[in-house]
Amino acid sequence: MKHMPRTVALAYLTFGVLWIFFTDRALVWMHFPPETVLRMQTTKGWLFIFGSAAFIYLLLKRYERNARLATDRLLESQNQICRMNASLEHRVAARTLQLESANRELEAFAYAVSHDLRAPLRSMSGFSQIVFENAPPSLDEKNLDYLCRIRDASLRMSALIDDLLNLSRISRSEMTPRPTNLTQIATEAAATIRDRYPDREVELTIAPDMTVEGDTRLLRIAMENLLDNAWKYSAHADPARVTVGSQQVDRERVFFVRDNGIGFDMAYSGKLFGPFQRLHAESEFPGTGIGLVTVQRIIARHGGRIWAEAQPDRGATFYFTLGADAQ
Fold it and tell me: Is 243 helix (H, G, I), strand (E, B) or coil?
């Protein structure tokens, strides 16, 4: 429709030029007297006026019909899009409710199972320790080794259950976002990790004045897990170095925890944040495989994301962001 005036003017001009050219040629070719030619030119002018009017009328009616059809199609498309959006929103809302319900049931199940398993595991660990301490001299080393294995397995299972319970509590706990000093949180978490590894010497660097909006308690748990990870996997480095800092990337503040430890092959990075997934042997680097899952859950609840970059024997860096929408 926006090109209609241009099209009408062009059509009118073309029709007028052709009409004048051919009718004048015809009058010359027929050799009419001058008086007849004058009358015929007057008649020709009136015919041109009525013909042009009829032509423009038909052209306008055509454009009007096309515009009406286009408007009808547009309205129908808009109505169809509205119906599709309403249906999509309804399905998304229904699926969201189903997913939330399934998550709540799964978390409740994990909490109940983990809670119920703790008592028998404590019994296994306690009784195996008693048998080990009161074993008669006739008990050979093989059987003593079996008792040690039972005790160690029950202790490891107990630690795994504790981590699962903590993960469940983190998922269900209320958040209290507020301005938080991440530098102080990292410093306090590092002090806890140093006490956990009293025989380790680690050169620690923490950037100053890192303030964020978040839940202090949850961020402390996340930072403690990341630093524990860095401490653990830099055990063979001499000297071991761990750095906590931040950098600006595309108008987004990105925080990181970096170590110069054993690192890993990026081909297996997809396993990092899966529960019970491990990239190194447990005998060399003990753990339950829940720490990074916990960190990812906390970062996600803060509206952020976490990822890692590493090379074998050249250390690893865990990057994370903290969004504005914490829930």
Answer: strand
Q: What is the pLDDT of residues 46-78, one digit of tens each?
A: 666 677 677 677 777 877 888 888 888 888 888
3-state secondary structure of 57: helix
Neighbours of 257 (CB within 10 A): 24
Task: Name the strand (E) or helix (H) holding 29.
Answer: helix 4-30
One-character DSSP codes across 134-192: T--TTS-HHHHHHHHHHHHHHHHHHHHHHHHHHHHHHHHS----EEEEHHHHHHHHHHH
Relative orientation angle of helices 34-133 and 141-172, to the nearest 10 degrees: 140
> Can the peptide bond before residue 239 be classed as cis, meaning omega within 30 degrees of 0?
yes
Residue 77 φ then ψ, to 5°: -65, -40
One-letter amino acid identity for 96? Answer: T
Would the pLDDT of 102 be above 80? no
Residue 71, Cβ neighbours under 10 Å: how many?
11
Question: Could you tell me how many residues make up the chain?
Answer: 327
- 8-state DSSP, 245: E
Structure tokens at 238: 């001499």
